[in-house]
Amino acid sequence: MPQSRHSPHLYPFSAIVGQGSMKLALILNAINPSVGGVLIRGEKGTAKSTAVRALASLLPEIEVAADCPYSCNPNDTATLCDLCRSNGIVTQTRRVRVTELPLNATEEMVVGGLDFSASITDGIRIFQPGLMARANRGILYIDEVNLLSDHLVDIILDASASRENVVQREGISHRHPARFVLVGSMNPEEGELRPQLRDRFGLCVEVHGEHDVALRVEVLRRRDSFDRAPEAFCRQFARNDGILRQRICDARSALSSIEFPEHLFGVIAEVCVTHRAAGHRADVVIAHTAKALAAFEGRTEVAAEDLHRAAALALPHRAREPLARNEALPETLAYINPPPAAKPAGYPDDYPEEDPTHVSVSDSALAEKGLEPTQRPSRNPDCPEAIFETAPEFKVREIGQRRDKVFRQGSGRRSKTRTRQKKGRYVRSIARRLTDDVALDATIRAAAPHQLSRKTDNGLVVAIQSEDIREKVRETRIGNFLLFIVDASGSMGAKGRMVASKGAILSLLKDAYQKRDRVAMVSFRKQEAVVNLPPTSSIYLAGQLLKELPVGGKTPLAAGLRKGQSVLRNVLHKDPACRPILIVITDGRANESIGSGDPFWEALSAAKGIAADKRIKSIVVDAEEQGGFQYRFSVRLAKVLRAEYFQIKDLRADILLEIVRSGV
Amino acid sequence: MAILPVYPFAAIVGQDKVKLALILNIIDPTIGGVLIRGEKGTAKTTAVRGLADILPVIEVVESCPFQLPNRDNGSVCGNCTGHPCFDHNPHDKPPTKKERKISVVELPLGATEDRLVGALNLEHALKTGEKKFEPGVLAQAHRGILYVDEVNLLDDHLVDVLLDSAAMGMNTVEREGVSFVHPARFTLVGTMNPEEGELRPQLLDRFGLCVNIEGIRDPHSRVEIMARRLRFDENPAQFVEDCYAESAEIATRIRLAQTQCAKVTAENSILELIASACLKLGVDGHRADIMTLKTSRAIAAYEGRTEVTPQDVAAAAELALPHRVRRAPFDSMATELVAEIRRALLDG
Fold first, then answer.
1. CB pair distance less than 8 Å for B155 and A423
2. ipTM score here?
3. Which residue in A384, A528, A552, B171 has the most C-beta neighbors within 10 A?
4. Cβ contact A109–B125 (<8 Å)
């Protein structure tokens, strides 16, 4: 089935301005499929999708068996599917196909399943090929791969690695080749891909918008003339596309004869070790990529330089450090694009281009600026009331409730949950009856094989009996409810505690924003605790309030905890399935009691009350600075609260990784 | 069935930016929609509904669920046998066409995914045992306006799907046993009240333009608003008729601008102006540049000119850039930003 296109003209590959490493990564995959796909990470509007589609029209046409659902290669009799073997082949040439995987695809559409039409009318079980079959010998493109259900990503990466799709479902047992170039794109602002999945993509490139006026104007001009007269524009770049196509063809046929000097394996290992790549997949990918590079540049032997350039594409997402914005491998990045003198003759003019390395420079300069406020000493710690600066934000480690089997309502992105509402993504079907959420397709498939033995008298072709009924399993992420209890007493003003705490809370809020949580904030100081922010989904409000939070006075920790408990009680009363997360930020130096008891003891007893409700997950963030003498009150508080205990620095995602690693 | 009269677009007092943004989108649908952010009761919904008066006419194949202009545009018809336009028209006979106004399709907040993207046709499957695709809201919205009220409250997975098809210009369905692709190019118009929570930046970027709307402070205008609303509520039909001339004038201007838009030229200096302003403001990616150019061109066409001026760019940037400037999620989309955009443009 042809993919529908509203315009027969695609933006030409060679007309894409800049984005050298993305273009190179795509080409290398086209030359050598063993490279194992590309993950394109980058901001919005940087020609990610455009490049993938353009690649398909750039590649030489392929010969396929006409009407074969798997696009069998007529010249390779060993891999023919059963259909082609039995029916004979009519050869047809066509463009390489880009199969797009929509985010809302269901599992059976991806891997394939029972064809119910055939079952009902002919009473036979026939496999209906899915997207994986359609993608065979083409490109499988997943836009926003980080938003795709993990379950589907797993299946696809599995097939991509084994180059075969094995189906065992609905009474069907089938396997077919699934060799495709996997291209995923994602915007890291929307959340990360699990490291496990990231590792399965052969290469990873970061794309950015151009930061040079002249280049931006060129982007604008080209896009504009394409939109106005696509045909003329494509003609203009047809020559460059043609040259590139020829180079890819030549490289493909040269690939098998590329020499790989023995001693270079040592270099690969060395590079991987220096960059602390996890696992051995990186080594293999680098070797394949380097070969493709050598072939692309018309050389017959892999050089050490190829390895470094390959490493720059293969390592960024595998290095054990978290992948921060613009954090590439500085020493190797320069190799991505050879100096202009290395351009072979006939190279299209604008390819490859200088990588915008200056981007990282300007960003790191910014980061330095952002660091300033922390260095600034908090003025006047004894001042009775003050509003403090905010330390820079950081990426927060994963905080979430455990996945359980409770069905709940709502939406968001923090914790995964089963949902009983008729919303959320339909991921698969089950035979169990729990709701009325009938999975029609699965039900008909279940009934299909029995149709010849059943007959209907109600005018319907399909006789469905109750045992056929299948239900949808839907999965959705729900946002949690986060309650912040913030210590705003005078002691928090000392030694920059509040500055650091505000930075930490703001970072947690940013994280909450990405996960669509609801938040509330309670602060306590002087004699009382107040609800600064009742439960809301407006993280913006919370951020504003926090910035203006005054600090000063005594520390009524117990009052703060009690107030927090009552907020939680209300929330849980409204929605008993909710799993709130309580975050207490304090230095623990309680010195104001509600009644007549010892302030700290009172706080502990309030904490015991909260800990009694198992639905609440608590976290204590210790604002007390490290080093020197510490009271460690917060540690005791955390113990009683059955809370996880963190110091502010532990909240950072990167540092947590360090801790885990050193523990192993 | 009598159709209730809608408050006319031309009779809305003030809110010029919203009106302009909507009009520009009709002139050039590739601008990619408007997001209207504002407090309650600021004629957000009224403006969108009122559009019906001034919308231009398009040609569609009768009873085609995908609003296609004729059979061969887009290859959906090959997959679509079984829909009425095919039943009545054997392949050799051209399908009946009809002219109608661009439609405004509303996506309710409670919509389910299968209604949005389309699903397996239940009746057809049970009666004949065959698969048939039942088109959803995205099919209806093709070549029209998809209106999402309170878009920030829309369920996350629906937003993802919406994003996907808005970006691709087509709807790819791979679920419930049907696999289907059809074009879905629509002007996405969303309204939201920022107090209820913000939109994800990724979705923000998909809206071509963004307008912050505020209640009108000027007492005279407020009186005028009340007076007009009262007149409309008393006798809607009469009120609509009174505004007819004004509506017709806007409609004519839009039609003229539509034909002119492609002829509007932009000098190299204009492109440089746009690029340097976008750089200065630190926008993500290149979509901002492209949208600003398209919008300036539509503005010039609407003003009856054939060349883009720096003033057009400034006006366009105010609509196309505020929501694209990179910042922390909880910085407000303040009015200072608009001033900053002006500065960035006019200094350059």
1. yes
2. 0.75
3. B171
4. no
B348/A contact by beta carbon, under 8 A: no
Query: What DSSP string runs through A461-528?
Result: S----GGG--EEEEEEEE--EEEEEEE-SHHHHGGGHHHHHHHHHHHHHHHHHHTT-EEEEEEEETTE
Q: How far apart, in whole angstroms, are the C-alpha atoms of residue B227 and residue A323?
A: 59
* CA nearest neighbour of A533 among A524, A508, A542: A542
The closest alpha carbon to B134, from B149, B151, B160, B112, belongs to: B112
Which of A540, A541, A544, A545 is best to mutate for the B interface (most B CBs within 10 A)? Answer: A540
The amino acid at B145? I
Give the angle A450-A455-A460 at the CA atoms, nearest 5°. Answer: 100
Please answer yes or no on whether B79 and A1 come within 8 Å at the CB atom.
yes
CA-based torsion, A443, A448, A453, A454: positive or negative = positive
Give the pLDDT of chain B (348 residues) as one tens digit per residue: 346 678 888 888 888 889 999 999 988 888 888 999 887 778 888 888 888 777 877 777 766 777 777 655 445 555 555 555 544 455 555 667 777 777 888 887 777 777 888 877 777 777 777 777 888 888 888 888 888 888 887 777 787 788 777 777 778 887 777 777 888 888 888 888 877 666 776 778 778 898 888 878 888 888 888 899 889 888 888 888 888 888 888 989 998 998 888 888 888 888 988 888 888 877 878 888 888 999 999 999 999 999 999 889 988 988 888 888 765 444 444 456 666 677 766 664
Q: In this complex, do A228 and B278 lie within 8 Å of one another by their Cβ atoms?
A: no
Q: Between β-strands A181-186 and A38-42, what pairing exists: parallel, antiparallel or unpaired?
A: parallel
Tell me which residue in B73, B112, B329 faces A510 most closely, judged by beta carbons. Answer: B329
pTM: 0.68
Helix axes B287-302, B268-281, angle to 10 degrees: 130
Nearest CA among A153, A131, A189 for reference residue B326: A189
Nearest CB to A441 within list B120, B127, B128: B120
Instruction: Report the C-alpha gap between A202 and A34 in whole angstroms.
Output: 9
Q: Indicate the burial class of A150 (C-beta count within 10 angstroms; 0-12, 13-18, 19 or more).
A: middle
* Interface with chain B: mutation pick from A441, A452, A521, highest number of B CBs within 10 Å: A441
